[in-house]
Design goal:
- Strands 1, 2, 3, 4, 5, 6 and 7 form a seven-stranded antiparallel beta sheet that branches.
- The chain has 173 residues and is α+β, with helices and mostly antiparallel strands.
- The protein starts with a strand and ends with a strand.
- The protein is elongated and about 65 Å long.
- It is built from five helices and seven strands.
- β4 and β5 form a beta hairpin.
- The longest helix has 22 residues.
- 25% of the residues are buried.
């Protein structure tokens, strides 16, 4: 039987309405860094919003990459455990191997317009089954493969929810 190995992507959106402490820190840090970096591109122009800069200023797409280091320390605090995603018994279980910052909206002069997303990409997972709106998953690793030979592996049941996406799917024999 072929195994389905997937990588999940969780898109965490952070804006001025975010209430969790970690989210607020990321919001403040990314806005401050956005303001500093965007001023390099907006200098001598009337453009203050991220969208205007992207449409009208050459190389403005570099801003996201320049803002990304402002969240690296906060992401490291997570210890490679994906935030907000719980298994069926209420425990965080998904590990991530990489992340990507995305600036959704922002304005140098209006902090309330600042909105970012952090896309977290899970480690490879075996997708065993879908039960109603739950995914039955296990970690894709050599340890689980040797356990599978003994007909026993550790699994997690995770409810499907907004902002979770299967970003890749591979079939293995």
């Amino acid at each position: 039987m072929q195994k389905r190995v997937i990588i999940l992507c969780y898109r965490k959106i952070i804006d001025a309405r975010s209430v969790k402490q970690w989210d607020k820190l990321v919001f403040e840090s990314t806005y401050l860094e956005f303001k500093m970096q965007a001023q390099n591109f907006s200098h001598g122009t009337a453009y203050t919003s991220y969208a205007e800069l992207m449409r009208n200023v050459p190389n403005a797409q570099r801003i996201t990459g320049m803002v990304t280091p402002s969240v690296t320390g906060y992401v490291q605090q997570l210890g490679s455990i994906m935030p907000d995603i719980l298994n069926n018994i209420g425990r965080r279980f998904l590990t991530f191997s990489r992340f990507q910052l995305e600036i959704i909206n922002s304005d140098i002069n209006d902090k309330d317009k600042h909105q970012v997303a952090i896309n977290f990409y899970s480690e490879p997972l075996i997708w065993h089954d879908t039960i109603d709106n739950y995914l039955l998953l296990s970690v894709h690793s050599p340890e689980n493969q040797s356990s599978a030979e003994n007909n026993s592996i550790s699994t997690n049941l995770m409810q499907l929810q907004p902002y979770i996406n299967i970003s890749s799917l591979q079939y293995h024999n």
